[in-house]
Design a protein that fits this description.
Layout: E1 2-6, H1 7-18, E2 32-38, E3 41-47, E4 51-58, E5 60-63, E6 65-70, H2 71-80, E7 85-91, E8 94-99, E9 102-107, E10 125-128, H3 129-140, E11 154-160, E12 163-169, E13 173-180, E14 182-183, E15 189-195, H4 196-205, E16 211-216, E17 225-230, E18 233-238, E19 257-262, H5 263-273, E20 283-287, E21 291-296, E22 304-309, E23 311-314, E24 317-321, H6 323-333, E25 337-342, E26 349-354, E27 361-369
Antiparallel strand pairs: 1-5, 1-7, 2-3, 2-6, 3-4, 4-18, 7-8, 8-9, 10-14, 10-16, 11-12, 11-15, 12-13, 13-27, 16-17, 17-18, 19-23, 19-25, 20-21, 20-24, 21-22, 25-26, 26-27
Length: 376
């Protein structure tokens, strides 16, 4: 095997594929990236058996061939190479990587032990890559981090023809985003549960391409796979087992108080006042006719207060939130203004975006936040 390729093309493909490598694989072969050089093109693949990634790029293939090399080492080398033409060549049991005066020699791993990777399911729909990345990021932020509760570490995907609804929760907050996409199968409806971390990384990495094709295996399929493909990159991931908790009833339909706030100054205030506390200690918020007072700390501990101008409709209210979760929600709405809707000081609040202070709500994203108890 021998080929030459532009350094950027090699590094981009290797970085994508290396995302699916495990740090503690169940077999040595899974530490590797498969390089398959064919006529005019090179194909790369990597997997941890849960997630598999593939990429391909144009190259001047002098000698076709296939080899398995240590993946993370190849990724580090590819990134560090000078911006020159790279030559990759198999010599005996070693792979030589040269670019300019930089020369590396990599060992090879046994290709015979490498598993057959799953194929992408049939395409379910297509969505703009930037819109896809934004929507996934807005929701994944609310997913749980506790692997002992795997269902809560996922993003729930519900497809109803041309509408995709994404949802995630860690029991203390809930994020829901609706997006429109171009379904490729008429009257298609299904649900899926994907690891939030994998889902978010894939979506973010596929930005810059025009569209992302999404493939979801039907619920009757034995192999519960989801796939993403954009131009020269693709990924398949096994869906999580379990049932995502019903969440729609948690979104309040009737509110007693709403507060409209400019996000940037409010977020700055949350960060400042939260300096005297941590995420286990609540940030107290007192909403009155034209301002919200933020307060943290009590007694002999460090304390901080600050006020921010608001537009209040309804009765004044005092409530407390986890400051980290509140800041996450303010950043996730992605609009200059936010409306916080309340039904009571001991009930969840809903954050919704507004592009203008007096404008309408951006209804496609809602971030529900549970209140915390605080010592009065």
């Amino acid at each position: 095997m021998k080929f030459t390729v532009d350094q950027h093309a090699l590094a981009d493909a290797v970085n994508w594929v290396s995302r699916s490598l495990s740090t503690r694989p169940i077999m040595t072969a899974l530490l590797g990236i498969v390089i398959n050089a064919e006529k005019g093109e090179v194909f790369l693949s990597g997997s941890d058996l849960e997630t598999s990634s593939k990429a391909h790029f144009k190259a001047d293939v002098l000698t076709p061939g296939k080899v398995l090399v240590p993946g993370r080492l190849l990724a580090e080398i590819s990134r560090s190479l000078p911006n020159k033409t790279v030559t990759v060549e198999l010599e005996g049991s070693r792979v030589l990587v040269n670019a300019g005066s930089a020369k590396f020699t990599l060992p090879t791993l046994s290709l015979n032990d490498y598993p057959t990777l799953p194929e992408l399911p049939a395409t379910t729909g297509v969505i703009n890559s930037d819109l896809f990345a934004q929507a996934v990021a807005q929701v994944a932020i609310a997913a749980g981090r506790d692997d002992s509760l795997p269902t809560l570490t996922g993003v729930h995907i519900e497809i109803n023809q041309d509408t995709v609804t994404l949802a995630a929760t860690d029991r203390y907050r809930l994020a829901v985003r609706e997006v429109q996409w171009q379904a490729t199968q008429p009257n298609f409806e299904t649900t899926a549960l994907l690891r939030a971390r994998t889902f978010a990384e894939a979506a973010k990495s596929l930005t810059g391409t025009k569209n992302v094709s999404i493939s979801l295996a039907p619920s009757i399929s034995n192999d519960r796979l989801a796939g993403f493909i954009a131009e020269s990159k693709s990924m398949t991931s096994r869906m999580l087992d379990g049932t995502f908790p019903p969440y729609r009833h948690l979104l309040p339909q009737e509110v007693t108080t709403t507060a409209v706030i400019e996000v940037a100054p409010f977020l700055d205030s949350v960060h400042r006042v939260a300096l005297v506390t941590d995420k286990t200690v609540p940030l107290r918020l007192s909403f009155t006719s034209n301002s919200v007072e933020l307060e943290a700390g009590a007694g002999e501990e460090a304390q901080a207060t600050e006020a921010v101008e608001i537009l209040l409709t309804g009765e004044p209210i005092t409530i407390a939130f986890n400051p980290t979760f509140l800041a996450d929600g303010l950043q996730a709405v992605g609009t200059p203004f936010v409306q916080i809707s309340f039904t009571g000081s001991n009930k969840p609040a809903i954050l919704t975006g507004k592009t203008e202070k007096d404008g309408g709500l951006v209804e496609n994203y809602r971030y529900l936040l549970m209140p915390m108890r605080y010592a009065s």
